[in-house]
Amino acid sequence: LHLSIRRQRQMCIRDRVTDRAGRLLLVQEAVGPAKGRWKLPTGLCEANEDIGTAAAREVREETGLEVRPAEVLAVRHSHGFHRGVSDVFFCVRCEVIDEGAVLTPQAGEIARVGWWTVSTAPSVAATAWSEWTHGSSCTQVAARRRRARRRDAEDI
User: Fold this and answer.
1) What is the arithmetic mean of pLDDT over 74-94?
2) Which residues contact 47 (CB under 8 A, 6 or more apart)?
3) Three-class SS of residue 134?
4) What is the pLDDT of residues 18-49, one digit of tens each?
5) Mean pLDDT, residues 46-70 taken together
6) Of 122, 115, 110, which Cα lies nearest the Cα of 100?
């Protein structure tokens, strides 16, 4: 999927990275108004960058981890979000290429990186993920695909 970025729109990526044990990769902000907050790796698409490339780049920059984008889980659009710019956010599920790799926080931006189970994740990150994936402003592409696959399997 490729969308152009104009001055009145910014495209953002939020990455949902899990390991084979089902743990979630979270990063802790080191600076700014969100300092200390744990979140999913997040960032902006660069001009002429496709969503999968941006997702993998953001995870690599923030954590040092190499991932492979697998699917778009959700899309959220907000009008006049920050400084009047329209915000298009893609949540991308990514698969880890090397689970043994050392997690390395991005200097000057990320304080810590860690794997968390959903039950032990910091409440802010778990709440944000739940709201993001179940909120009314979110299109749940993956959920529809899973339902369609189940229906297809039942027809066999």
Assistant:
1) 79
2) 5
3) helix
4) 888 988 899 999 999 889 989 899 998 998 89
5) 94
6) 115
pLDDT (0 to 100) of residue 124? 55
High-pLDDT (> 90) share of the chain, %: 38
C-alpha 100/C-alpha 107 separation (Å) is 21
Q: Rounded CA gap, 53 and 115, in Å? A: 22
Instruction: Please provide the DSSP assignment of 52-91 as one string.
Output: HHHHHHHHHHHH---EEEEEEEEEEEEEEEETTEEEEEEE
What average pLDDT does range 128-144 have in this prediction? 45
**pTM (2 decimals)?**
0.73
Output the six-digit token pair for 29: 């902000």
Query: Residues near 143 by Cβ (< 8 Å), separated by ≥ 6?
Result: none
Q: What distance in Å separates the CA atoms of residue 122 and residue 116, rounded to the nearest whole number?
A: 8
CB atoms inside a 10 Å sphere around CB 149: 10
Q: In the structure encoding, which two tokens stand for residue 112, read together?
A: 């810590």
CA distances from 121 to 9, 57, 82, 105 (A): 31, 23, 27, 18
Residue 47 has a CB neighbour count (10 Å cut-off) of: 8
